[in-house]
Input
Amino acid sequence: MSPGSDADPGRSAEFDPVSFLEDAVRIPSHESPDEMREFVVDLLGDRGADPAVVADGCVVAEKRSPAPDAGPHLVLNTHLDTVTPHVPFERGEAAADERGGSESDAAADEAVIRGRGACDAKGPLAALLHAFLAADPDRGRLTLALTPDEEALSLGAAALTGRLPGTDDRLDGDLYLVGEPTGLDACTAAKGRFQATVELSGTAAHAAEFAGANAVAAAEDALAAIRAFDDGVDAHPQLGPPKLTPTVIEGGAATNQVPADCAITVDRRSVPPETAEGFRSSLAAAVRESLASGAEGGDAGARATDRDVDAAVALTDRESPFLEAFATDPDHELVRAVAGAAREAGDAVGLPSERGGDARPFGAATEASYFAPAPTVVFGPGDLADEAGAVAHAEREYVRVREVRAAAAAVERTVASLLGDV
Output
């Protein structure tokens, strides 16, 4: 692949991350990652990287040092798929809302790449590919692991890490660097996301009679339990408090009948160390306690028909495990390496001093969840959202060309610092 017209002096003519990104954004990967996967596999094969397609469509390639046991196993991961619909590629000057709030001459001449996947996550992919191809580790191992369905069920990542029945952990990494749009910050943590249904079961009866057990009326106590679920819970030092939100409620079959069933769907944004099963069992206990307390506290006429309502909580069926929360110590060597390299690379391409290099949480759930508890950092060019609104997953998705260059250099420096001679 020939380098683009704005390739930096001294960059390898074999691979230019911006030229790659221009080609990659043109490839639709919202309905199927197959064409994108073939493009990447051919690229890696042409450069002698010996890629393999494994575990439900993941692309894996490895570089071993002469001393693989003398250093860490570092895994570079991102995904090949995008959300619907495909947004065509465009390269041009940055609009005012794409300059990061800077009015400098450099920002006024800022070049951006627009289109689906520009920042989520083909821009980060370009940076990881550059670093992998440039790497020549002195110690340890380096693995590139690209997954096919992060925007859907993450079956590829789950199979790759041994989290699906009948699969083994093919990575077994010591350190993970996950490519997502972080504005060149080193993101050390992210909340998990679970979905569950509170199922209330009573007994149907004629609405004119004081009979039956009203599941819809019992929802009052269930919702009270949901509102109070996190009372007294300490905030996580990086992610803050967890959040539980009732999102959908369904119940009743006829307007003149005591309803036998009611279901409340809840969205859970978790923090460590909560697991999906731990959340489910804790919420079930809280709802049952609230139902019992409400029935005891009501007068006989108003609440007698609600006392026999049963409660259960079921996690929404998924083919892959839920993405749980993860957190890496902000003082870990991996975090320091990524943040320091991002600051140096940003300075080298003339980014504003406040752009990149911070250690902070990430704003969305990612496949980084499957790599924990190994130290994991999420990093890449671009933003989930800017001052004008959504960027990733939006019609206006874009990434700044200088940030792609900086991200590529930062990941290359990170790999060298972690796997280089000491």
About this structure: The chain has a mean pLDDT of 91. Residues 276-297 form the longest helix (22 residues). The CA atoms of residues 24 and 392 lie 16 Å apart. The radius of gyration is 25 Å.
